[in-house]
Amino acid sequence: MAPRKKQAPEPNTTIPVSMADLARELGVSMTTISRALSDHYSIGPAMKQKVLKLAKKYNYQPNRLASALRKGKSQLLGIVVPYIEGRFFPSVVHGIESAASKAGYNVIICQSNEDVAQERRNLDILLSAQVAGVLVSLSRTTRDFRHFEKLRSRGMPLVFFDRIVEGDNVNAVVLDDQEGGYVSTRHLIEQGCRRIAHIAGPQHLNIYKNRRQGYLDALREAGLPEDESLIVYTDMIQSQAIDAMRDLLASPIPPDGVFAAGDYGALGALQEVHRQGLRVPQDVAIAGFSNETFTVVTEPSITTIDQRCEEMGQAAVRLLLELIEADGRPFAPRQVALRPELLVRNSSVRNSSVRNSLVRHPEGERLVEAAAKASKLA
Amino acid sequence: MAPRKKQAPEPNTTIPVSMADLARELGVSMTTISRALSDHYSIGPAMKQKVLKLAKKYNYQPNRLASALRKGKSQLLGIVVPYIEGRFFPSVVHGIESAASKAGYNVIICQSNEDVAQERRNLDILLSAQVAGVLVSLSRTTRDFRHFEKLRSRGMPLVFFDRIVEGDNVNAVVLDDQEGGYVSTRHLIEQGCRRIAHIAGPQHLNIYKNRRQGYLDALREAGLPEDESLIVYTDMIQSQAIDAMRDLLASPIPPDGVFAAGDYGALGALQEVHRQGLRVPQDVAIAGFSNETFTVVTEPSITTIDQRCEEMGQAAVRLLLELIEADGRPFAPRQVALRPELLVRNSSVRNSSVRNSLVRHPEGERLVEAAAKASKLA
DNA sequence: TTGTATGCGTTATCAG
DNA sequence: CTGATAACGCATACAA
User: Fold this and answer.
1) Which residues pair with B174 in a beta bridge?
2) Where is the signal peptide (chains A, B) (predicted)?
3) What's the pLDDT tens digit per position in B206-261?
4) Alpha-carbon torsion, ordered A224, A225, A226, A229, to 10 deg
5) Domains of chain B
6) Shortest CB distance from A91 goes to which of B85, B153, B377?
7) Which of residues 58-117 of B touch A (CB under 8 A)?
8) Which residues of A183-206 are buried (b: 16+ CB within 10 A; e: fewer)?
9) CA dihedral of residues A52, A56, A58, A60 (deg, nearest 10)
């Protein structure tokens, strides 16, 4: 029996209306109703109008569950991210939701909390929910990828973003970190730096490895020596960057520029340079990576790389929709690498004419205002 | 006809298995399968084991769509937020998702982009998706609340958070902003400030109105005069706060403390005080609001109010689940106000002994590390 | 152009 | 304790 409440309903309670109800009211078949509502070709315009009008009158809401059950595909996309915090993932999710909703899809969001087991469970849940496709950014503890095999065997469209399974048989969207390291370093070189240090992150993580490689590429291109003593490996946290910078400044020939593979590294470097009474960017120019919110509020503001978070989300959705539309037909997997954007700010600009024009760093202000807007109600 | 592909399936493609399949294989009825899987009381333990084993063998995944369709309720919660960016909303969503998934629910997330029309559309979509309940933070352009009436008439459980519909006939979770303004100001008073300015936000927004009221409460309690010339109204952005601070410092008796109703206000104040060669906190102590990420990286770090974002999400889910479980039975609406947490940092601590112990501001470091962790892969 | 009939996968009811 | 059956709301193959 239907679980419809037979008991006396609450005072102002409306019971939802179904296609069958509309059909009965109009004295036509459900088929007709269905066709009118889904804008099927074989439907008389007069009939269609009548149906639409009645639907509006009764405030008809299609039941997407029923539709999805029947069609075997819902209008839902699943997202699995390690967590929804910090600057990066929320922005990507923002991009995903926007792109998805524009295409008529909604998103179910799951957090793996950096835990493979939970990642696995999330995938199962999304399968159960009959989502049309899945977007995944890997948990840090994921070393074994069999659970994704399961999705594949079920024919579930799958796109990775940011933290991806390496290889050319997966669909994925990433930032071109190597390019990011390259343009940052080249920028420092263009500003006259000749001895550029690198505050590196953990090299088992691809992003940091690639940023370092980009740094080396730029040095090589400029004919500058690759000096391992100028590279300090850290966990990319502020305190370690401070130590790193202290060591670098204590060396016989201290650096005149620093490319940090993360903004917290750049921040630590900036603080230590200041502490030693040196000037940024005149004595040491600094560039970071990730466009953290704080990079525009430091004194001076920090040059950094924007990771195109929203674009990443959009690109991932685009790819996923293609995959969904392919509907099981052969589809050549694609890996998309987004071009990072160098945001030049005061921590790196030595040319004074350029510098003056940058003092107001408009893109920075935009960022600050956007962030202020984004922070609660402000 | 079922849309099951009749064409030759892809090489390693598995077709999903249903209860009917299991029933056939075991030679029992679907009813039995259903009961075994849903742990119904009237099922033999032997039978149950057999079924569970077979389910595992075939990797059975229940179809939640079918279940929800039949039961008239899904295991989905809907969230409508203005956007997923900045510090606040992502954290709340994080809290919501965690609490929901712990209770066996998943969340569909929708952005209104500060647009009532989209907010309305989102609610319709969520109704269509047959969610079990809805969590809403109002768009800024929402002045008319009839669309929520529709949810109510459908008996859809609804909880507001942060940006709520005022009144005691709604379920809502908010931060106690007045308390926040109060404890911040009292803290400044305890640090010896006797002339405390207030950088206020737009007063048509409740949060800012309430923070201002809390500020006044603290002054009154301490017997300090309420001086309107010490209150500057801004849109809570950095540039306006700089101007505000300049004016305040130019007055005949400049303030020795500033409570800003937002961290961007505190930041601007800090910068202007420094620019004028004054010291923070010795000459002017400063406190902000919202615990933005940058408040721990400024020099000095900024005392602020934590908004309990995650707790807010959790509380909202708790309330919503109660509502869902009440299942239409009379439920007295409840408004929950979370206690804000004062985070004392260097911008406000004048007592040197306390100050030294705070130089490392452990909660700040935790924050920084968490943020670093949260920023991409770091 | 419209109608009839059936099934998607699950669960509730009722009878054994 | 188990089974047969109907129904949730919708979409489609097929007949008219």
Assistant:
1) B337
2) none
3) 899 999 999 999 999 999 999 999 999 999 999 999 999 999 999 999 999 999 99
4) -120
5) 19-62 (1.10.260.40), 74-175+310-338 (3.40.50.2300), 177-308+342-352 (3.40.50.2300)
6) B85
7) 59, 61-66, 68-72, 74, 76, 83-91, 93-94, 97-98, 101, 106-111, 113
8) bbbbbbbebebebbbbbbbeeebe
9) 80
| Interface test mutation site (partner A, options B5, B56, B65, B289, max chain A beta carbons within 10 A) | B65
Give bridge partners of residue A161 from the DSSP assignment. Answer: A173
Please provide the DSSP assignment of A49-104 as one string: HHHHHHHHHTT----HHHHHHHHT--SEEEEEES-S-TTHHHHHHHHHHHHHHHTT
Structure tokens at A357: 């024009």
Q: Exposed (0-12), middle (13-18) or buried (19+): which is A210, by Cβ within 10 Å?
A: buried
Residues of A in contact with B10 (CB under 8 A): 155, 328
Put simply, the answer to whether A292 touches B262 (Cβ < 8 Å) is: no
Question: How far apart are alpha carbons B284 and A95 in whole angstroms?
Answer: 41
Residue type for A174, please?
V
Establish whether the CB of A49 is closer than 7 Å to any nucleic acid atom in strand C.
Answer: no
Give the predicted TM-score (pTM) of the model.
0.89
What distance in Å separates the CA atoms of residue B77 and residue A74, rounded to the nearest whole number?
16
B94 and A83 within 8 Å at the Cβ level: the answer is: yes
A12 CA: distance to closest CA in chain B (Å): 6
Task: Say how far apart CA A282 and CA B334 lie, in whole Å.
Answer: 59
CA A10 to C1' C2 (Å) is: 39
Task: Give the CA-trace dihedral at A143, A146, A152, A157, to 10 degrees.
Answer: -30
Length of chain B: 378
Q: For residue B133, which of B300, B4, B319 has the smallest C-alpha distance?
A: B319
